[in-house]
Structures are given as structure tokens and as C-alpha cells.
């Protein structure tokens, strides 16, 4: 019998949420500024996204990235405090889960920070993002997560993309116990079958295209377009995620 590997789509607006819903995605990672790796979305966007999922009758759909800035994942006390506040605000705005991560100065997964984030989430699903891939020990980072109360980890297997990290992803899938392994990082539609064969629990991708509605953002050198979620890519990913049982 075939099984369907859950597909998570990274989206930056309510239109993207609606595309992901219509395309059969399992959930979205809601964020802003994907060009910076993703940042915390506004409260209004979270509320609207949660409302769209609720209207569609799809529970557990909106998972909010909580990341205070671009750059690396080593945060000072103010940034950690902001993250905790934003987690609580996301929950109040209707989020079903949060996506977080932090590293220590030494490059290890910041277990105390993750514990604070899980506590602030107050029972929402917690996904730890690709900070684990930037850590000094991705396998060890993943092994530590379930004990902290995380539900899943988004990872490329410590590599630049999922293709390069495929062998490590397979090892993570075997060794992770109840922690879900969600493969993400440069995922192409053609990679999904290989990721399923590696034993991962879900796949994450952005399914991004570019729109140019309204023209450039200004005469001073602004960008000419903005990201949109492509319905064709979402549909293709969901179709590719129907795989035969081993």
C-alpha cells in the first residue's frame, strides 16, 4: 500500500497559506524574509493564516518560525527574551506550532534556550530548525532534542542540502526514536522519493516563485519583485510524496 509523506511548505503570506491548503500540504511554516533564511512574521499575518486554516477545516496547519534576526543562531539575552515573547504572541494569535533554534558560542545546540522555547510554547508543537545543521555536532544535537520536548527537527543532515546529507538523514531517521525527522534544505521535487526511501518522516520546501505585481519598489535600487508560493510546485511535491511502502 502507498503512504503519503507529509509535505510542509514555507510560506510568507496568507496567499501562500491558501495555496498550500488547496494543494494538500500537511502544514506550513509561516515566516517572513525567506531571503534571510526566514524571520518571525507579524501578529496580523499569524492571525490571518490561522483563520484561513480554520475556515478550511484543517487543524494543526500553521507553524510559525520564531527567529529574531538574520545571520547566525547565537543569540544574546535580549534576543532570547524577544524570542520567548514572540512564541507567546504567536500562540495567542492562533499558531498551531512554533519553529525555533539557537546555538551556544561554542557552536553546540543551546539546550537551555530550546528548553525555554518549549516551555513558552505551552503545549504547541515545537520544531527545531536547521540551527542543528550549523551546530558542531548535528547528530548529537538531534539526539538531544526529544528529551527537551521537541516534536520534530528540520534538517539537511548537517550538509549544504538534503542530497549531500542523505546518508546522515537516513542515520538520523534510524536513531531519532519518537522525534520526527523532517528533511529540508534545497529540496527538489525529484529528491522526495530518495528522502522517503531514507526513512524521513516529512519533507519541507518553499515552492517559491517570483511575482512582479506593481513593478520595482522604488527608484533607489529596490527589488523588482516578491516571493510567491507556486501552486504547481506544491501539487508536484504532494504528488511525489505518495510513495510505496518498503
State the main characteristics.
TIM Barrel, 36% helix, single chain, two-stranded antiparallel ribbon, 246 residues, eight-stranded parallel β-barrel, alpha/beta, 12 strands
What this model shows, in words?
It is built from 9 helices and 12 strands. By secondary structure, the chain is of the alpha/beta class.
Chain-wise SSE layout:
Layout: E1 2-4, E2 7-11, H1 14-23, E3 27-30, H2 43-55, E4 62-65, H3 77-92, E5 97-100, H4 111-121, E6 125-128, H5 131-134, H6 138-145, E7 152-155, H7 166-175, E8 180-184, H8 192-197, E9 202-205, E10 208-211, E11 226-229, H9 231-240, E12 242-244
Parallel strand pairs: 2-3, 2-9, 3-4, 4-5, 5-6, 6-7, 7-8, 8-9
Antiparallel strand pairs: 1-12, 10-11
Helix pairs in contact: 1-2, 1-9, 3-4
Amino acid at each position: 500500500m502507498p503512504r503519503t509523506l507529509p509535505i510542509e511548505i514555507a510560506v510568507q503570506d496568507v496567499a501562500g497559506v491558501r495555496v498550500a491548503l488547496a494543494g494538500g500540504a500537511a502544514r506550513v511554516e509561516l515566516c517572513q524574509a525567506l531571503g534571510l533564511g526566514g524571520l518571525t512574521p507579524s501578529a496580523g499575518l499569524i492571525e490571518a493564516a490561522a483563520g484561513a486554516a480554520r475556515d478550511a477545516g484543517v487543524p494543526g496547519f500553521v507553524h510559525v518560525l520564531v527567529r529574531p534576526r538574520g545571520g547566525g543562531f547565537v543569540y544574546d539575552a535580549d534576543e532570547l527574551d524577544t524570542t520567548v515573547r514572540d512564541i507567546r504572541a504567536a500562540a495567542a494569535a492562533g499558531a498551531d506550532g512554533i519553529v525555533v533554534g539557537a546555538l551556544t558560542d561554542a557552536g553546540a545546540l543551546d539546550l537551555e534556550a530550546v528548553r525555554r522555547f518549549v516551555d513558552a510554547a505551552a503545549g504547541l508543537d515545537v520544531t527545531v530548525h536547521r540551527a542543528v545543521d550549523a551546530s558542531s555536532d548535528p547528530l548529537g544535537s538531534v539526539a538531544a532534542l526529544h528529551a527537551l520536548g521537541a516534536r520534530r527537527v528540520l534538517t539537511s543532515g548537517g550538509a549544504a542540502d538534503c542530497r549531500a546529507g542523505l546518508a546522515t538523514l537516513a542515520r538520523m531517521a534510524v536513531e531519532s526514536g519518537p522525534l520526527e525527522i523532517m528533511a529540508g534544505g534545497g529540496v527538489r521535487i525529484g529528491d522526495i522519493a530518495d528522502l522517503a526511501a531514507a526513512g524521513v518522516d516529512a519533507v519541507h520546501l518553499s515552492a517559491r516563485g517570483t511575482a512582479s505585481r506593481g513593478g520595482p519598489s522604488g527608484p533607489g535600487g529596490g527589488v523588482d519583485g516578491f516571493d510567491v508560493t507556486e501552486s504547481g510546485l506544491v501539487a508536484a511535491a504532494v504528488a511525489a510524496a505518495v510513495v510505496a511502502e518498503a
